[in-house]
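This part of the workshop introduces the protein records we will be handling. An example says more than a description, so a record of this kind follows:
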Amino acid sequence: MIKGIIFDSDGVLVNSMPFHAKAWVEVFAEYGIEVTEEDIYEIEGSNHVGVINIFFGKAGRTPEPEIYAEILEKKRAHFLENNRAEVFEGMYDCLSSLKNKFKLAVASGADRTIVTSLMDKFYPGVFDAIISGEDVENGKPDPEPYEKAIVKLGLSKDECLVVENAPLGVESAKNAGVFCVGVPTYLDESKLKEADFVVRNHSELIEYLTDLKDSSL
């Protein structure tokens, strides 16, 4: 029986990835690395260390140890200055109703300041646990983010369900041995084929979660 639901944040709970992508593109440009917003969508879910390693590696460069914190601070500043993210329609009411039946958590690759600010603004008091990209050594697709969320909820992997919109996030959930529902927010649904079940959009996601709640009565 499902007792806990763990959500990715960007692209699942909040329509915020365009602002993350823009921030990354602008920051990498400062270091002479050309990255497109589509490139960022493809590796969505990785924490800042993973993102930096991926694109420095593609450019044939090795980031100096001190550069990770420097780039994170610049990216955070870009995001917070330009963020116009909004909650997906119907998700707050859906999660508010789920809270009566399930333990709820967030497992995001974004840094703690951004994740908590978005959740405090759009989903105050909803979540029992929040895992950010700074709370793990190994970001998605490593299983650590979801494993940590499961432990925080005090549940087993068989008692949890993950909702993801990114390929690396789906891979992370499956590596953690958790049932995963995919929602194709920014990429084609074929990119989420490793998920156990894929809905077409957020309206279908809300229907799926509502049915799950009702079946647990």
Remarks:
- The first helix runs from residue 17 to 30.
